[in-house]
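Appendix C: a fully annotated inverse folding record. The material below is reproduced so that readers can follow the format used throughout the book. The structure is listed first as tokens, followed by the designed sequence.
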């Protein structure tokens, strides 16, 4: 891999030519790989002890301690919440690594996108009910070729974010617009919205609009990076927009026949 620079040369205020220079970035590329591998190895090693800590905490909070003070119960609650957060973070790191490395190639098969939407909505319904958020979806039918489990993961992530950043009494809607080459899926919320200069950054790893988002909302900042990787493997596009009045809309364009387009995308570095 290489990157190139184009430097215009001016002599006495007049353009006289340009210098094109190339820089070999294979070392940086190799370093990035090494860093990713390191993170995933560490995450892997952390998962087993963490699972046992989480299991033990679960048992302790299930009442085997008998009567405990409010203070002790509160400390247990904090330990459970935070180990759940760590488990989510580690699972997201390992998930992203697995998907990006191509260790688990995706399998395209014909599917009704509306089935995936319904499944994602059913899965999120309890969370939405608890948050007082109404989930709506249209009934448009669209058959595409894709990996249903991965697409379910994308939709679940988008719905989970939409609910997480919405307030009680608001609505989250999923809409599908079939076009000439593919379908555009939109997840529209009426939540707190995303600043214009962060609309692209939120798809980066560990990127959160607010530093308190991971603490208060329990996220890892990896969900949208995972979504983008999966959508790219489907030769599609994912982006975020600000709504005119309130909230944000996440759009996913999925081509009808990704098999004919995806090979080039998957071969390229996904970052
Ligand atoms: P997280 O696990 O933090 O949700 P994501 O990668 O899914 O990680 O999202 C990154 C950040 O983008 C979030 O922490 C939040 O700041 C912002 N974000 C994502 N979706 C929304 C949304 N629907 N409304 C407002 N902000 C959002």
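Designed amino acids, in order:
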């Amino acid at each position: 891999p290489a990157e190139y620079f184009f430097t215009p040369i001016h002599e006495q205020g007049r353009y006289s030519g340009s210098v094109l220079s190339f820089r070999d970035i294979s070392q940086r590329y190799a370093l990035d790989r090494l860093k990713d591998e390191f993170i995933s190895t560490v995450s892997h090693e952390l998962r087993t002890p963490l699972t046992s800590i989480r299991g033990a905490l679960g048992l302790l909070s299930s009442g085997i301690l008998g009567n405990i003070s409010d203070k002790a119960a509160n400390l247990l609650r904090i330990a459970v919440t935070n180990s759940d957060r760590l488990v989510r973070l580690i699972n997201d790191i390992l998930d992203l690594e697995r998907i990006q490395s191509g260790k688990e190639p995706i399998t395209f098969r014909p599917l009704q996108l509306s089935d995936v939407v319904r499944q994602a909505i059913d899965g999120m319904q309890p969370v939405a009910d608890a948050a007082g958020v109404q989930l709506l979806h249209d009934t448009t039918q669209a058959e595409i070729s894709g990996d249903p489990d991965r697409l379910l993961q994308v939709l679940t992530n988008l719905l989970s974010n939409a609910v997480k950043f919405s307030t009680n009494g608001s609505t989250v809607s999923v809409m599908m617009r079939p076009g000439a080459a593919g379908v555009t899926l939109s997840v529209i919320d009426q939540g707190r919205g995303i600043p214009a200069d962060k609309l692209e950054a939120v798809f980066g790893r560990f990127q959160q609009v607010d530093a308190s988002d991971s603490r208060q909302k329990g996220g890892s900042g990896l969900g949208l990076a995972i979504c983008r990787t999966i959508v790219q493997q489907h030769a599609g596009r994912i982006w975020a927009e600000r709504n005119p009045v309130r909230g944000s809309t996440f759009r996913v364009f999925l081509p009808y026949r990704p098999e004919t387009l995806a090979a080039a995308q998957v071969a390229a570095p996904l970052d």
